[in-house]
Prior knowledge:
This protein is of the alpha+beta class. It is 18% helix and 34% strand.
Amino acid sequence: MSTLTTLSLKSFSKRTVLLLFFLSILCFSKIYGQTHSFSGTIGKYPIYLQMVVDGGRVSGYYFYKNKLIDISLEGTSKSGQVTLKSSDEYGQDISDPETFKFKWPNKTIQGTWSQKGKSLPLKLAALTSKETGSPKCSNPYFKKEVYAASDLTKVKVGLFKLKEISTVQTINHVKIRHFEETNTKITLFRIDSGLVADRQKDANLYLEFLQISEYLSSLECASYSTYGSDYSYSVSDINISNDLISFSVFAAYYCGGAHPEESNYGISYDLTKHQPIKSSDFLIPGKESIYEERVYAYLAKNNPKYFSENNESEEYDVNMDCQYFQRELWTADCDFVLTSDGIKLLPSFAHYAAPCLEPEWAVIPYSELKDLIKPEYYGKLNQLKP
């Protein structure tokens, strides 16, 4: 397995279980102990390969251009001969491994790839700036969060491709288009028209960053799971005005481990300040505890059967098992979507309570919270018309 570090998207969304994508922060160098990145072919199949040479030990990974799924490599370097074998996600030996053999260092590497008695010619050359210099890597949000992406991560970003999957949708006089990434099937929308030019450009850069992040997460899930990837990401409840964008995300994924995970969270973005929105951005400082009490009281009053600890209704309802009466579900840190009807709350639950994740009734009108919301934000929130 390649050397990894994790990057959380918590600064953009607060999830029940944070989705992570893994980024190597090593850079290309010709000095032993550093990372070396290549493109080339196994037979007729284009590949990308990265390795770290540390004395006589070599580790790394490679992926096929048409799949983008990492395959871990471990091996040795002796007298200019490198031997690498595919390993599991923990760097351990596996039966019937793929084997790479080649002379190194050379400007152009020629060697062999073999597995189960089959052998193909291997050709490698150092990555070029064209392969790592995708304009998408210059996305300001990507550069801010991923301060030193590896060469092969940059290659994957360059191979991020979209296709339109639906007709134009109009929300509050703003037109949007939905796009699917062709390899991972991760979908997200872009603003087509209806916003001031600089806000529209910034919004689309932010949305592009979110989709690239999920694309990389999906690829990592597939790469480092014994069971392969089962990863889905969908958005709903999209709300847009001249100042705000807010929508709900449902993510379900299984990347190995004891059980799959599901999360439902909100993404809200301020087009005037060019930054994601947290509850602390629109609440008047010091009003958090009052906000929590008022939210709980409003929800309990309007949905009494879900807030009674001793409900004896004979009619089964899955919501009865969610224990919505627990106050810790409705704190100021509870995730949310800013909608035309009010603040829609998205409480967190463990994976086995996935049906509890998005109570449609958990919406508090802005008018109920007017004295707790900063005046400049109250006006923005009321622009979110259906």
